[in-house]
Amino acid sequence: xxxxxxxxxxxxxxxxxxxxxxxxxxxxxxxxxxxxxxxxxxxxxxxxxxxxxxxxxxxxxxxxxxxxxxxxxxxxxxxxxxxxxxxxxxxxxxxxxxxxxxxxxxxxxxxxxxxxxxxxxxxxxxxxxxxxxxxxxxxxxxxxxxxxxxxxxxxxxxxxx
Length: 161
Hints:
Strand order of the largest sheet: 2-3-4-1-5-6
Distance between the termini: 29 Å
Radius of gyration: 15 Å
Number of domains: 1
Number of helices: 4
Shape: globular
Strand content: 15-25%
Oligomer: single chain
Largest sheet: 6 strands, mixed
Number of strands: 6
């Protein structure tokens, strides 16, 4: 947790300079598994189609449309190897990334984003729930929405000053 906070502080300046923001979340945040989730595959990952109001990804997608929070898109990233898709050679078009993951992979993912020169911030998952690493049966995870709002609003506040 300390590592995540230190990375956020170190990377905030470059993150604040980006015009557009995206939130990257792991698949374990979805209410449905891969077979039932209606998210659409795009180059950058998966885009929520809003199939279930109870899905935490859908709830974040709706929050992201709210301009009071600066507006952001939400992408589901099935695997950390997909992070390279967010690299951009054009600094004008570069998007700031707010990534969410469990504590065991977040710092590694932060360094991966830094390696690709992607301006990033992070929000830890509240708990781990993926079937691949933690549970014999997958459980839907969550993240601290208040922390996500704080990061987005701090960016908006700083860019207006």
